[in-house]
Amino acid sequence: MAPEIEEPNVPAGVPVGDTVGVPVGEAGDDTIEDSRMTLSEHLQELRGRLFRGAIAFVVAFVVLYMNRGPVQEFIQRPHAVAWEELHHKLHEGRLALVENNSDIDVETYFTVTKDAEGKDVLTLKDADKTLQELTTLGSGGPFFVAIRICFYLSLFIAGPIFLWEIWMFIAAGLYKREKRVVYMSLPPSLLLFLAGNVFGFYFMVPAAIYFTQADGLDAVKILPRIVDYENYFQFLRSLTLALGVIFQLPIFQVALSRTGLVNPATYAKYRGHTAILALVLAAIITPPDPFTQVLLAGPTMILWEIGYWVSRLVWKEPDPELAIDDEASAVA
């Protein structure tokens, strides 16, 4: 007679083979959640998530296009700020020509009027001709300009929703410790990207436009400044996007140190090399003038220092025994 086999004492709801007392999918940090699906089910889920992201994009586009007037005024703000400074520089340059040349009459460049107190008010005659407003040179005119602006802004607005849907699709196949790393790095990454865009929009782009257009405004004969709207928007989009990527620098530094790949002391060692590289990168991205290059290289070095100090806080010396075990496994 065969001996009876005793059933293992397993709590209800826990399959045999899993860790006793721990629900399925939570036995450890390296347990993948129970989300097995067929290929067609995966594709159907991906289609649904992309569809929700596309709906967000369409809604954003429709709302922006219905309000395209205020949207275009907002997009023109960096140009308007730079143009105001250029008008001031042009006024000072013309006034200096009149004061330094006795044979030039003030009415050559200015219209003289009186204010309420009887004081002379000088108004430039050729300001509108010299510093012209944004114009459209393409055959599509303002229509295609508005379409492009609304399209890229809709991508910017719906981008986080797309990222979230893609992340939820991928997260089912990740370990919990891997998901924790993403959850910890994603919010600061998005905030830094937004900070880079804001810095570029309100500071870098106006400064770059001013310093590229200000040269020669104090001359007697001045070339008219005519800026195409599409070229301006492309410049604005490229520079703000580049700054958003550059502002991710601390995230990469902390991630490399957290995984034990780079010691924070390395960041301090190559601080000088980074400064030179930042200046070279600024010379490539920005117009060729020292001010805008320093304006970009300065924040880059500040971000480098932030990444260095945060990396020091999260750095842990690798365990030598684990390293030996890894080498032994590799040899085997």
- Silhouette: flat
SSE pattern: HHHEEHHHHHHHHH
Report, as a whole number of angstroms, the end-to-end distance: 47 Å
Largest sheet: 2 strands, antiparallel
User: Could you tell me the number of beta strands?
Assistant: 2
The level of helicity is 55-70%
Radius of gyration: 30 Å
What class would the helix/strand composition place it in? Answer: mainly alpha
Strand order, largest beta sheet: 1-2
Number of discrete helical segments: 12
Poorly predicted spans: 13-29, 325-332
How much β-strand is present in the residues? under 5%
- Return the average pLDDT rounded to an integer: 78
Oligomerization status of the protein chains: single chain
Structure, described:
- It is built from twelve helices and two strands.
- With 332 residues, it is mainly α.
- It has a domain at 39-247.
- It has a two-stranded antiparallel sheet with strand order 1-2.
Key terms:
332 residues, disordered C terminus, two-stranded antiparallel ribbon
Question: Which SSEs are present, and which pair or pack?
Answer:
Layout: H1 39-66, H2 68-75, H3 77-100, E1 110-114, E2 120-124, H4 127-130, H5 141-171, H6 176-213, H7 229-246, H8 249-258, H9 264-269, H10 271-285, H11 290-314, H12 320-331
Helix pairs in contact: 1-5, 3-6, 6-7, 6-11, 8-11, 10-11
In brief, what are we looking at here?
The chain is mostly helical and 332 residues long.
